[in-house]
Amino acid sequence: MFARVMISPRLITAVLPAVAALVSCQRGNQADTAIDEGILIIGNAAEPRGLDHHLVTGVPESRLITSLFEGLASDHPYLDDVSPPGAAKSWDVNEDKTDWTFHLRRDGRWSDGEPVTAHDFVFSYHRLLHPDLAAYYADMLYFLVNAEDYNRNRRSKILLSNDRVPGATWEDFDGLDGSPDESVDTDGLGSPPEWERAGDEEARARFVRARGLDHLPPEALDWLLESPDDRYSWPASAAPEQIRALLTALREHHGEDLFEIANVGVTAEDDHTLRIRLRESVPYLPSLSCHYTWFPVPRHVVLAHGEITDRFTPWSRYPNLVGNGPFKLKEWRFHDVIEVERNPHYWDAENVRLNGIRFHPIENPYTETRAFLAGQMHASYTLPPDLAETIREKHPENLRQEPWVGTTFIRFNTTREGLSDVRVRKALALALEREQFVEHIFEGHTTAVSMSPEMGEYSPEPVLEFDPERARELLAEAGYPNGEGFPRYSLLISRSSARPQAETAQAMWDKHLNISITIENRDWGSYIAAQQNLEFDMASAGWVGDYLDPTTFLNMWMEGGGNNNTGWHSPRFEELLREAATKSDAAGRFAVLRRAERELMNGMPVAPISHHSRNYLLHEAVGGWYPKLLDNRPWKHVSLER
Amino acid sequence: MTDKPEQKSSLWKDAVLRLRKNHAAMVSLVLLALIVSACLVLPAIPGLLHDPNALNLPNKNQPPSAAHWFGTDHLGRDILARVLGGGRISIAVGFITTLVAVTIGVMWGAVAGYTGGRTDAAMMRTVDVLYALPFLIIVILLGKTLEPITGGLTDFFVNLFAGADADTRARNDTRAWVEPITTLVPLFVAIGALSWLTVSRIVRAQVQSVASQEFVEAARSLGLGHLRILFRHILPNTVGPIIVYTTLTIPGIMLFEATLSFLGLGVKPPYSSWGILIDEGANRMLSNFWLLFFPTLFFSTTLFSLNFLGDGLRDALDPKSAKD
Fold first, then answer.
1. CA dihedral (B260, B263, B268, B274) positive or negative
2. How far is the C-alpha of A235 from the C-alpha of A37, rounded, in Å?
3. Is residue A631's pLDDT more than 90?
4. What are the chain B neighbours of A440 within 8 Å (beta carbons)?
5. CATH code at B22-321
6. How much is the pTM?
7. How many CB atoms lie within 10 A of CB A167?
8. Burial of B161 from C-beta contacts in 10 A (0-12 / 13-18 / 19+)
9. What distance in Å separates the CA atoms of residue A602 and residue A406, rounded to the nearest whole number?
10. Is there a contact between B256 and A3 if contact means CB atoms under 8 Å apart?
């Protein structure tokens, strides 16, 4: 009995958690024991992709990282618009909020006892922005002066505007675009284009344009230098000797890291003074600095395990990981538990209330809920909507339902044939009955009318609606009348608990547009990777605000944004975002952002469905745990009391 | 089997008699017939059942009632329709995959057992090697590798049944019942390709013992060809163990499909199989017990029946008791 013999162990593993829950019930309650030990046990939804906060993007990772690291400011236990000091004990700022000086704590230490210095912060922001690290979240630091140019590796602009090219300035080369030209035909050049394959003059010229002036290998620069005028189209304003000077400078600085030259707006004035210069007025910088992209990494540890640009080196694994947060890494069992314990070197260690936290990556929220009810944990990550009713009746004291700044949406891969047509994307968006989702699928959510939820003074223009007539018209215009010949796309979901919402969208599209799609379930890591590599058709996704400003829902849709993952971009949209950044009054700024958001919805790279609410279970013994709009939990204030 | 020898025909008769005396096996047979015919026939009658995949959100999580005998699920779909529709898939997986496995296994074992010598050794060592592979991992890998073919396969069958020039609605309706089965073809093939090992060993041993008997010698001395001897004279004498093994393999494979679907690797939504229904029901058993109860009832009844029937057949076809 091959099949049977092989099956029984599988079934046992499937049944085991339930049995284990029953057994532990009888043996006494794990959650109660942990209260006496001062250890908080919480569900954390997924095994994190890693703990290197320059390389992750998810909420499960964020909860772990905020316990291990601390930014310049920290999260307030219950206020959303106040950021108490963190690694910096105070800060000064100029009047238009563009030039900030942070005074770091002199007693700030990493968990291995080394001092936390301003150089760690400079190193950290340098690393996140480094073009070769290709961090997905690099755009969170674009607020820094020149950070975007550096991250996008605009070498010619950096050299020209920082006096590295004798006799020429950026103005002389007005309009020079050194970025790759996607319209160039790269036949025979390989993908990405390779210099070795470009044999004749014509192929070499194509190579140069396809790669972009800023990204050329030395051989190509030498070849250009031989006869610059014939081989590249230069802005008319640039004189021949200036062009030679630029090419020579590019050749000279080839392969060099331009961070210093780029004059990025972060500098260490001394060991404990960090100066941050911003390209726009950001009054909410302290709140922004509570996001993990602004946290420091321990320079001495990162460099001990590799170069600055090496990804996923062992520095962020147990036992190497060193942080400056209230807790330090104690144990990491893959797909089982990550445990952190009190960090004795933390500057505020005496006010940390817990002895440790255990994060369990339980992907199935039903399993998690059962584990909570069986007394195995103190807080669950999320409560499945269809259990809310039962819990409200039987365990009202544990049920938490709170607003959460976030949006559920369907992400389109706009590089796929069919989905590249905005009419198709709009048709798909128009055929979704959002009221039904909110009423029956997402407990406590509100209907989305645009990408960003209402935030304080900001409210987006209502764009989204349910209009099946219009949807069918658009689909017919796009060449799929009555759904005929429509490609068979798959909708990517990250866990089986997302199946109800995916099946609902599937049924609505089938009903209103007469098209059928498949649903594909992947684990968290490959779900994220598929989107980052644009290897998907559509994905059921969500985005939670990183700070309380609408730009947290808008900035990521810029070209090349690490969290864009749609292939969509619009110059007009980016222009409006840049325009908004120059406005200093809130009302004027929000007006421009509304127009930008309207532009985004016009392109419809995503079809928003609803705005989040946080539903979870919390043990009565947990103290210092308050509702927060961004759900950024300052772990040091959380306590356990009988 | 046109020229059945007299003695063998009485063996079958005896077997049927013995089986009819086995009450557990007979009850199982009736139950099995009921479930299988319900799953195959009822969903095919138009208008009798609700659409198993049609959402009716305002009507979600209804307990069993006159309108929905087994209640509705979290998306308002009728559980009765889903259990019967899912049964089709689970049963199809069980039977088709077993057929694949048994066919390969019988051929392999018969050839190895009849040929003997080096060929036999080489063939059986291959079986040993395949035994050593981790079953679940190989099935998942093989299934994933073969996945790209399912799209073309679905289109082929949709064209076959609905016609290439039918309108989109008709094609989508045909797709609704073709697709859940074609998307499982990689799994059929993968499971089938790895579950024949035991059959081949049983058949080889059986063939070896039969091949040394006098009537085979007689056939050989008459100058019959190897194929004729193997298929006409030897294999019919190994049918008993093969049937028994088959009835015991089907539930094993249905269980395995349930495991894969439970893990999210089997049938794709919105289609159901018993494994998926049990997964969804287990998640919601705190609030809606009927989501778990009915699929489990059907699934375990089928498994029990097949096992009892297999046991009954083993007793009935035992050649030793046939000689008394």
1. positive
2. 69
3. no
4. 57-58, 60, 75-76
5. 1.10.3720.10
6. 0.81
7. 11
8. middle
9. 20
10. yes
Question: What's the per-residue H, E or C state across A65-110?
Answer: HHHHCCCCECCCCCCCCCCCECCEEEEEECCCCCEEEEEECCCCEC
Q: How far apart are CA A635 and CA B81, in angstroms?
A: 49
**Two tokens at A367?**
């399993």
Closest CA of chain B from A428, distance in Å: 17
Split at pLDDT 50, 70, 90, the class of A28 is low
Do A499 and B288 make contact, defined as CB atoms within 8 angstroms? Answer: no
Query: Chain A closest CA to B242's CA: distance in Å?
Result: 12
In a 13 Å sphere around the CA of B224, the CA atoms on its Cβ side amount to 16
Cβ separation A482–B288 shorter than 8 A = no
**Looking at CA atoms only, how far is residue B65 from chain A in angstroms?**
20
Please judge whether B175 and A520 are an interchain contact, meaning their C-beta atoms are less than 8 angstroms apart: no
Which B positions 45-74 lie with beta carbon below 8 A of chain A? 53-55, 57-58, 60-61, 74
Mutate to test the interface with A, among B74, B128, B245, B290 (most CBs of A within 10 A): B74
Question: Does pLDDT of B230 surpass 80?
Answer: yes
**Residue A640: what are its φ and ψ, rounded to 5°?**
-125, 125
Bond prior to B236 in cis (omega within 30° of 0) = no
Q: Which residues of chain A neighbour B282 with C-beta distances below 8 Å?
A: 366
Backbone angles phi, psi at B184, to 5 degrees: -90, -5
Residues across chain A: 642
Q: Give A601-637 as a DSSP string.
A: HHH-SEEEEEEEEEEEEB-TTEES----TT----GGG
Task: Pick A390's closest partner by Cβ from B168, B283, B287.
Answer: B287
- Is the pLDDT confidence value at A331 over 70? yes
Q: Quick check: B194 contacting A, CB < 8 Å?
A: yes
Please determine, for residue A22, whether its predicted confidence score (pLDDT) is greater than 60.
Answer: no
| Residue of B53, B72, B75, B300 to mutate for A, most A C-beta atoms under 10 A | B75
Q: How many CB atoms lie within 10 A of CB A169?
A: 13
Q: At a CB cut-off of 8 Å and minimum separation 6, what does B115 contact?
A: none
Instruction: Give one DSSP letter per residue of B145-203, joined into a string.
Output: HHTTHHHHHHHHHHHHHH-TTS-HHHHHHHHHHHHHHHTTHHHHHHHHHHH-HHHHHHH
Q: Which residue has the higher pLDDT, B228 or B322?
A: B228
- A295 vs A546: CA distance, rounded Å: 13
Do the chains contact at B255 and A3, CB–CB below 8 Å? yes
Query: Which of A433-442, A543-552, B3-12, B152-161 shows the lowest mean pLDDT across its residues?
Result: B3-12
Closest CA to A430 of A479, A461, A473, A459: A473
- Looking at residue B100, its pLDDT comes to 86
Inter-residue contact A273 to A90 (CB < 8 Å):
no
Tell me which chain B residue has its CA closest to the CA of residue A494. B264
Count of other CB atoms within 10 angstroms of residue B275: 28
Distance from CA of B187 to the nearest CA of A (A): 13
The DSSP 8-state label assigned to residue A523 in this structure reads: -
Burial of A227 (0-12, 13-18, 19+ CB in 10 A): exposed
Among the listed residues A336, A384, A355, the one whose alpha carbon sits nearest the alpha carbon of residue A44: A336
Q: Distance (Å, rounded) from C-alpha B235 to C-alpha B106? A: 9
**Mean pLDDT over the full length of chain A:** 89
B113 within 8 A of B207, measured Cβ to Cβ: yes
CB contact under 8 A, A11 and B255: yes
Whether residue A20 has pLDDT greater than 60: no
Contacts of A482 in chain B (CB under 8 A): 167-169
User: Are the CB atoms for A18 and A364 separated by under 8 Å?
Assistant: no
Torsion sign, CA atoms A522, A523, A524, A530: negative
Residue A496 is predicted with a pLDDT of 67
Given a contact cutoff of 8 angstroms between Cβ atoms, the answer to whether B290 and B79 are in contact is yes
